[in-house]
Each structure stands twice: as C-alpha cells, then as structure tokens.
Specification:
The structure is a homotrimer of 332-residue chains.
Chain A (H helix, E strand, L loop, with lengths): L3 E2 H7 L3 E3 L5 E2 L1 E2 L9 E5 L5 H6 L4 E4 L8 E4 L3 H12 L9 E2 L4 E2 L4 E2 L4 E2 L4 E2 L3 E2 L4 E2 L4 E2 L4 E2 L4 E2 L4 E2 L4 E2 L4 E2 L4 E4 L4 E4 L2 E4 L6 E3 L4 E2 L4 E3 L6 E3 L4 E2 L4 E2 L4 E2 L4 E2 L4 E2 L4 E2 L4 E2 L4 E2 L4 E2 L3 E3 L4 E2 L7 E4 L4 E2 H16 L10
Parallel strand pairs in A: 4-5, 5-6, 6-7, 8-11, 9-12, 10-13, 11-14, 12-15, 13-16, 14-17, 15-18, 16-19, 17-20, 18-21, 19-24, 20-25, 21-26, 24-27, 25-28, 26-29, 27-30, 28-31, 29-32, 30-33, 31-34, 32-35, 33-36, 34-37, 35-38, 37-39
Antiparallel strand pairs in A: 1-3, 2-7, 22-23, 39-40
C-alpha cells in the first residue's frame, strides 16, 4: 500500500500547500465518507460546503477554501487528480520477472528483465522491453519489438514485425498489424496484394479494446506519440496519425489517410481513404469525412460542414419540416 | 435426446390443445418435410394449406385450422416457438463438473459445482456460479463474480472485479471491464485517468460477439436485466443501460450516458456522452444522437428527428434535388 | 528464397518481355534503390525518368520505355504487381505437418496433411483440409469444416458447424458462427430464439480482423466466393452476400439482407435488415441503407440517394446555410 505525505503530493502536482503537509495519505477518498488518510477533490462550488466538514486528510481545489483538511491548491484539478490517482492505482508494470509455465516463448526472443508474461501467451522471436506486462492469451509475432513498460491485456494479437514504443497500453482483444485491405481489381474479381509494411506505434500511445490497426502495404502504418484510441476503432494500412490525437469509439480511418497532430475524432466517425486532415481539426460524433480538411476547427455531419454551418442547417431543416406540418404524411 | 408430449408442450407455452396430446415430440420440423415426432409452425395464412397435409405430429398456430397434426393454439407463435426451440436446443449449461487440465485456475477461486471450464481458460481469484460454462481461451480477472448458468464463449475477456448476474451469455471475443476512455487534458496532451469503477451486468443479459463494455471511472458501468446487445457494440464508462434494452450491431454509447428501460437502438447508431435517453425511445438504424431525448417514440437520422419529421425531410430533399435536374452537375 | 527468371515472371503475368529474360529475380525492389536481382514498377509517367537510370534487373510497365532493366509490358500493372508480390511473399500455407504440443485437438477430428496448428489452439471434432494453417489461440468448434489452404490468424473463433471453403483467410480475432441476434418479443421483454443454422463461406473469401459473422436462425448465413470483408465488419444472421463483394471497415449488414454480386460497400456503412441489394451496387462511405436498392450504380448518404443527387443536395445545403450568414447563430 502506497503511503505518501500531503507535502509530497503537493510537490508532485505542483500545487500550493495550505496547512499540515506531514499527514500520511494512503488513497483517494470522498468528501462525505473519506477518512484522515485519504485525499479528495473539490471540482466546483457545489462541493465547497462539504469541504468545510470533511474528515478527509487532504483536499485538492482550484482556489482557497475553508476546510479542516490540508489543502492543495492547483490550477487544474483534473490533471492533479489523474496524477494522484495514478500514484495510488498505477498502470500495471512488471516488478518481478515472471513467465508463466504455460506461456510458449521462442528461445530466440530477446526479453528484458523484469517482464511479466501470463498464461497461454505465445511469444515469437521478438523483443520485449523491461517492465512490460504481457497478459494471458496474447500472441506476439516474430520480429515484433515492444518497448519498456508496455501493457498488453488478455488476447491481444501483435503480428510479426510490429514496432511498439515505450509505455504503450493495448486493451484486451485488439489486433495490431493485421493485413491491410489491399486488392488489385482483375476484371470483376480481386487479387490480394501482400501487405509488406508493418505498424509503428510511438511511445505513450493507448489503444482500447477490440481495435484493429492494419500493417502497411509497402510503407508502415504509423501512430504518433501519446495518441489515444478508444474501443472498436479501425486504423487502415498506410495511415499516419499524428501526436496527441484522440479517436473516440467505433471510428475508422480508411487507407493512406493522414491525421494531423492533436486532432480529436468524435465517436462513430468514418474518415475516407487518401485524405489529409490538418492539425487541430475536431470532428463531432457521427461525422463522415469524405474530403481533405486543412483548417483547424470544429466540423460535423454528413456531409461534413464547419460546425456552425451544420448547426444552422439543422435549424433550417427543422423549419422546413415543421413549417409543413400538414396532411403530407399520408403517403408514409 | 429430449422427448416430450404434445400435451406437455401445450402446457409449457400456455396453449390450447386440439387433438391427441399423447404424441411424443423429439424436435422441430418443417410443415413440408417433418415427421410424426416433430412440431412445426403456421406463422401466417400462406401455410394453412400445408398444415392440412402435413405429416408433422404437432402444429402451432394462432388460430384453429384443419390439420392431421395435433394442434396447439397460442396467442403469440413467435414466443411459443422460442420456448419450444429452447427446449430442444437449450443454451449451453454445465451438467457434469469438468475443468480442462490445460485451464489455469487460481486455487483461491470460488467455483460452484457443476461448472464447465474449457481448454486454456485462465481463471483468476474470482467467483463462478454453478451451471456456468466458460469456454476455451476465456480470461477472467481477480475479483470478478459470475452468477449461475452463465455462458462465456471462446476468447471472452472479463477484467478484474466485473460483476455478472445469473444466466448472462457473452458471445466470443467480447471484452467486459476494459479501461474507460478517460484522460485529463494537460496542455496539448493527455494524462490517463485510472478507471476505478467496474462493470455490473444484471441477470439474463446477452452480449454479442466482439463487443466492449468499459469499466467506470469512479462509479460502475451498469447494464440492466434482460438487455440484449448485438455484435461489435461499445458501451462506454459510467453508462447506465436500463432493463429490456435492445441494442443492434455496430452501435456505440459514449461515456456517462443513461439509456432508459425498453429502448431500442437500431444498428450503426452512435449516441454521444453525458446524455439522458428516456424509457421506450426507439432510434432507427444509423441515427446519430447528440442531445437528450426525453419523450418515448421513434427517432431517426443525423441530425436526429422524430421519425415522421425525418421522413418528411427525405421527401423535401428529394423534391429539392430532383426538381433541379439541370446541367448543374457539370462541376461534379 | 524464391529465385525466378524475368521470362518466367513475364509468362506468369501474361506480359510482353523486352530485353534479357534470363536474369534471376529474387524479390521486389524500388526504382531508386533496388539491385540487379529485384523487380520494380513504373505506375505512372513520374517514374519514367527513374526507370532510365535504375539498377533493377527488371521493370514492369504499362507501356514501353527506355531502361537498362529487362522490361515487362502488361495491361494492368496493379494486377501484375499483386501476382509477383504473392510469388515472393505468399500467403501462409502448411508445408510440414506440425501440430504444436500445447494445442488441444479432438481425437475424432479429421485433419488433412500437412496442416499447421499453433500453440494453444483448440480443435474440436471438425474437419481441416490439407495446407491449412491454424494459428495460436484459435478455437474451432465441433462439426466445423474448413477447406484446403485456409489461414486462421491468432485467436480467431469458429463456432460449431461452420462451413469454410478452400483458401479462405480470416485475420486475427474474428468470430465466425456466433448466435444471430434473434429474440421473440414477450410483452416488454425478449426471449432468445435458438440459432439453428450455421455460416457457409465459399472459397477465396478473406475476412479482416475483429469481424463477426453470425450463424443463421433456421437457414444459413452465406458469403459468396472471393468476397473480401475488411476489419470490424458485422454480417448478421441469414444474410446472403454474393460473389466478389467488397465490404470496407466498420460496416454492418443487418439480418436476412441479400447483397448482390460485385457490390462495393464503403466504410462505416450500415445496411438495414430484410433488404435486397442488387448486383453491382456501390455505396459510398458512411451510407445508411434503409431500403431495397435494385439498380446497379453509385449511392451515398443518409438518407441514401443516387450519388449525383446526393452531391447536388450537398451544394444546395451549402448555398442554404452560406447564403444566410447573418447573426442567426446567436442562439447557438
């Protein structure tokens, strides 16, 4: 069980300490129910009253307030919360070197130490960095390279040759490096085009559960540092995603499309192939993107429009249909 | 092989028996080809003629009709069919207690009897109710609790702490309890927010193949009793789905959204986060839901509209484009 | 390492050889960097200059050009490229008969020779054709039949009774034969309808990663020869897909819908149930198909329209909203 003083927490989150810094904190707590060894959070004014009577040992807040708890004032409560929560509930990391006897590990694999390899994992002639956790039923192909402190949850599949950076997390059941959807049209049918590239995932990327990232045709599919991909997302062959991209669930990017840095892709969004999406573009949920988008900003809809135009279209359409509320529905 | 009399079947489905109830029925049959130990169904008038000459031992119908078969008259043929079909083709259930020697089972797991655990399953320090079937390659984390008579098809992943009620069915490859998509924005990048809640699935829920249900951030993601979720669906962290909800394939519900009882979500529907959808709301296929929907009824489209307004919009748009069928497409 | 003369390659692709046919080619190469034992490609005029100075042993082109390399002139460079690439990078195929000791194989299974079965695979009382490769963690149910030279990538699940033809490829994590989404409405709740059909997949089909194909209710779900399905696609129970269909990622077809031969389904497309889609219909990405489509041609959008009408609608909508660029957005 981690045990850390309020002063140390204040340092860690770059906060200003008000009150006793020597108290020992052992975990997260709720303003109402938490005890003296817990830290809680005041996210907005509604919780100020609770802070005044809390039994928590420490409280995090954006501004000063009256409380018996030690107070840590921070500019961004969410970020401070995330950092503190990660301290008490860290991402899995291999401490002892443990390879389950049922795991099948190629003797030629280059495995750092410590790593943790779970039951029934199948590890090819690959490279695993120290600290990496490979859970049960994971399959890693020959020539794959995983960095340090990665986590592959159960039943993840990493194909041959895939390159994964440090601290990458892949949730259960995701598939990295499957063949891209490439066929040459031969009359009315299709001939498979071997997919000879691979997938390169930079450091600190997280990929959700049930995702698929295809290997490239000749070049590589690439995902930039710190990019976060939600569940059931698809990244097609030859795509290049920038850094700090956020892609919400049930979204797909078709082949050879480039997504700029810091783009935010809303859920259930489909992005067509061979497109160029600039940096800092944000797509609302359910967008269908069939054209390049160069300018940063907010876009929505199918057809895709600048958000403010889309919202205006909605109003126009409502006027159109509500203004005609006659018997015109007989033919429905 | 099950063997049951027509009279017993009539009792089971609350039907009215006409004719010989003593005949032994051993399975389902077709009006044209089925024999004397089979039961068939007259779903509409088109099949009445066939019923008159059928060799089936028994026939199910909404109304009386002439047939050499024993007749069972029921108000709802589909429901009666489902109940009879389940009798002859029951959902898998552990009868003998069988744990495959290649399964890896934590000795601290609390396992009811009988249960059936398949090859290469990995069972943490969890609780499994009697009658439950865990098929090959399934992974169940520490602290998970499964009720009685559940079925987990091959390669399902249940994360630590997930709570699953009685008679829950999860089709192959689905993931229950993966980390929610939670990050705190820190300047231009994102810090992972540990997902400390879990997933609670009530009794008689069925989850299709390739689905993902994320664990909650602080509270739990919840799915109500008897709710049915189709393949490749995503339920995000902190969502609360009501009872008897039906969610068709390729649909997703973003974080912290509440779905009321008996909602019907058409396929390929995307529902945004932090929304409240009332009871008995029905979304047509391909809907994009970006706002609360309080009133029961039918809704469609992107933007979402009441179904009748959406259908009117379709007509208006068709008039608009077809009424302008000039050379205006040169610039295409 | 394959080693093949330029003349033999020209024969294989039905191309016209210009220059020395005796050179030995060992792989694919780039016009800039490739050596004398490599073959490269001139896809368009931009590469003609490079061809004049290349060190490649052979070059493929649609028309004659000046080059020190042996030249193979072909009508379709993409098709020729695919065939040559497959020669040097063939789809996995069992050569030696190897069943990994950790695989669990039902002694009653009928297994051709040679087959390759990976670690932790679970093979029921099924039939596997010679040449077939079953990778790690794959589960195949009783009564399933796989043809010759199939490839099942890691963690694929094939349910009982599924029929798969020769040379079918299934990428990692896909599920074939899961229960269809069938329930009978009983008042406000739902009773499971047993899914008694199976899935029949014809020869030369490829199914991407993370897909689901449900078994039929009474009849079978069918996928026609040479059809290609991308990642995270769903094919529901009782669907019948024709031959040479192409279905791009994140798409779904609901129950009992028929898709004609040579249809092309763009990404993130949702197709409703009980529909009939004719041959040679093409849906643009993000289409929502709620009605039958009999006529061949291009369709897009939600609502679905002929492509040219949809593009006109886009222009009309843009005019509508841009022509009203007043203060009307205050209420946003």
């Amino acid at each position: 069980m981690t045990d850390i003083t309020v002063a140390a927490i204040a340092d860690m989150v770059g906060g200003r300490l008000v009150g006793d810094g020597s108290r020992a904190i052992r975990g997260l707590g709720d303003l109402k129910t938490g005890g003296a060894d817990r830290i809680g959070f005041v996210r907005d004014r509604r919780y100020v009253a609770l802070a005044e009577t809390t039994k928590l040992g420490a409280v995090l807040s954006k501004s000063e307030l009256r409380t018996p708890a030690s107070l840590i004032v921070v500019p961004n409560v969410d970020v401070a919360y995330a950092k503190i929560a990660l301290t008490f509930h860290p991402t899995p990391r291999a401490s002892a070197h443990t390879i389950h006897p049922t795991a099948v590990v190629d003797p030629r694999a280059e495995i750092g130490s410590p790593v943790q390899i779970g039951p029934h994992a199948v590890i090819g002639k690959c490279t695993l960095g120290a600290g990496t956790v490979v859970m049960s039923g994971v399959s890693i192909g020959d020539g794959a390279v995983l960095g340090r402190d990665c986590v592959l949850y159960p039943n993840v599949v990493v194909y041959h040759g895939v390159q994964i950076g440090d601290r990458v997390i892949v949730q259960a059941g995701s598939v990295i490096g499957s063949d891209g959807f490439g066929y040459a049209r031969d009359g009315t049918s299709w001939i498979k085009v071997p997919q000879l590239g691979t997938v390169r995932i930079a450091e600190d990327v997280e990929i959700g559960a049930g995702c698929t990232v295809d290997r490239g045709t000749l070049t590589d599919t690439r995902i930039g540092a710190r990019t976060k991909i939600d569940n059931l997302c698809h990244v097609a062959h030859n795509c290049v995603l920038g850094v700090d991209v956020v892609m919400a669930a049930n979204s797909g990017v078709a082949g050879s499309t480039t997504i700029g840095d810091r783009c935010v892709i809303g859920g259930s969004t489909g992005i067509s192939g061979h497109l160029s999406i600039g940096a800092d573009v944000r797509f609302g949920g359910g967008s269908v993107v069939l054209r390049d988008v160069k300018e940063a900003g907010d876009y929505m809809g199918h057809p895709l429009m600048e958000k403010r135009l889309f919202l205006r279209l909605l109003r126009e359409q409502r006027r159109l249909v509500e203004g005609r509320d006659d018997g015109g529905d007989r033919d429905e």
